[in-house]
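so my prof wants the structure for this chain in the tokens format not the other one, which i didnt know existed until like an hour ago. anyway here's the sequence
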Amino acid sequence: MGAPLTAPASLLDSVSMRNMIPDPLCKSFEAGGNHYLIPPFGSIVKLNSSGLLIWQWLGQRLSWDEICAAYAEKTGIDIAESTAEVTAFTQQMYSSKCLTNELSAS
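here's what i got, hopefully its the right format
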């Protein structure tokens, strides 16, 4: 098992984004000056196959670099493109009203 997920700072700049998904569905904590997320796992059903794969990795608490590398390996794209896709997907999930409502109803 890898280190806890550290999302890119751009995902954590907004306090409202951090609070978008309520505890206990999404836990977060500060340690060593870094902000870590333990995302929800198992409650999300309306995702494409790539999304399910990413959230499974997040559920296993792999590091951000490990998630991007694994996604690149699975899809055959380079690491820069993989990082961009994973970041965009994660931003979409954390800012989605639909996701928040789906999780709240679970």
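also thought this was worth mentioning. Strands lie at 27-31, 34-38.
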